[in-house]
From TrEMBL:
<dbReference type="InterPro" id="IPR011711">
    <property type="entry name" value="GntR_C"/>
</dbReference>
<dbReference type="GO" id="GO:0003700">
    <property type="term" value="F:DNA-binding transcription factor activity"/>
</dbReference>
<protein>
    <submittedName>
        <fullName>FCD domain-containing protein</fullName>
    </submittedName>
</protein>
<dbReference type="InterPro" id="IPR036390">
    <property type="entry name" value="WH_DNA-bd_sf"/>
</dbReference>
<dbReference type="InterPro" id="IPR000524">
    <property type="entry name" value="Tscrpt_reg_HTH_GntR"/>
</dbReference>
<dbReference type="GO" id="GO:0003677">
    <property type="term" value="F:DNA binding"/>
</dbReference>
<keyword id="KW-0804">Transcription</keyword>
<feature type="domain" description="HTH gntR-type">
    <location>
        <begin position="11"/>
        <end position="78"/>
    </location>
</feature>
<dbReference type="InterPro" id="IPR036388">
    <property type="entry name" value="WH-like_DNA-bd_sf"/>
</dbReference>
<keyword id="KW-0805">Transcription regulation</keyword>
<dbReference type="InterPro" id="IPR008920">
    <property type="entry name" value="TF_FadR/GntR_C"/>
</dbReference>
<dbReference type="Pfam" id="PF00392">
    <property type="entry name" value="GntR"/>
</dbReference>
<keyword id="KW-0238">DNA-binding</keyword>
<dbReference type="Pfam" id="PF07729">
    <property type="entry name" value="FCD"/>
</dbReference>
Length: 228
């Protein structure tokens, strides 16, 4: 591997390596089933093996890698069960958050959500999947921030790693960005109008998109999914 990422001073090295590897796993640059080498990755980032080992531990906690004794650390195949479990927990949290947002979202956050939707459209037009997914996450993060409940998004972020790989794989055909942006607009309009019931239903519909996408994606990429 060549060194393609520069670490930033002042930020914990293990967290930077974790975030970078997480992104590469989620976008399937590092595909399911791949062996991760501590030696190669430490050389790639020009660091000792300790922060790489710590990044691996965090990746294992989020369900993205699996440590097999005497064999090594492997990128886990996608578990449809874990995807659905994460989606269920996320739906429970975010529908509650969006109901509260419809009642008490701060005006400055409404402006930021509106601008975020504009950026999503630009990313979709450029067919920039990585940027679109980042903005998608920002949209949901901003909703939690609008009610001063950042912990809700932090909880979601910790459980959605399995979902993120499926989200990336669905963008081209199963759940194209235009449809997701339309769903985001519906959520935003319900929040803006103060309609908690409509906001909850719009969020529920949006997050249930995963239910309908997991089957066709697993059929097309069967080698990347666990046998369950």
């Amino acid at each position: 591997m060549s060194i393609i990422h520069v670490l930033h001073a002042g930020q914990p090295v293990n967290q930077q390596i974790y975030r970078f590897l997480r992104q590469e796993i989620v976008t399937c640059i590092i595909p399911p089933g791949s062996l991760l080498s501590e030696k190669e990755i430490s050389a790639r980032f020009n660091v000792s093996r300790q922060p790489v080992r710590e990044a691996f531990i965090k990746l294992a906690e989020t369900g993205l890698v699996q440590v097999l004794p005497q064999r090594g650390t492997f990128v886990r195949k996608i578990s449809a069960r874990l995807v659905e479990d994460g989606r269920f927990i996320r739906e429970s949290l975010e529908t509650a958050v969006v109901r509260r947002a419809a009642k008490q979202a701060r005006p400055d956050y409404l402006e930021r959500l509106d601008y975020n939707l504009e950026l999503q459209t630009r990313a979709a037009q450029k067919q920039d999947s990585n940027e679109f997914l980042r903005l998608d996450d920002d949209f949901h993060r901003l909703i939690a921030g609008s009610i001063d409940c950042a912990l809700a998004w932090e909880t979601v972020e910790n459980i959605k790693a399995a979902m993120d790989r499926v989200r990336f794989l669905t963008l081209s055909e199963v759940s194209p960005p235009d449809r997701l942006i339309e769903q985001h607009h519906t959520i935003f309009n319900a929040i803006k109008s103060g309609d908690a019931d409509a906001a909850e239903q719009a969020m529920r519909t949006h997050l249930q998109e995963m239910i309908f996408s997991i089957t066709p994606i697993s059929e097309r990429n069967g080698e990347w999914f666990e046998d369950e």
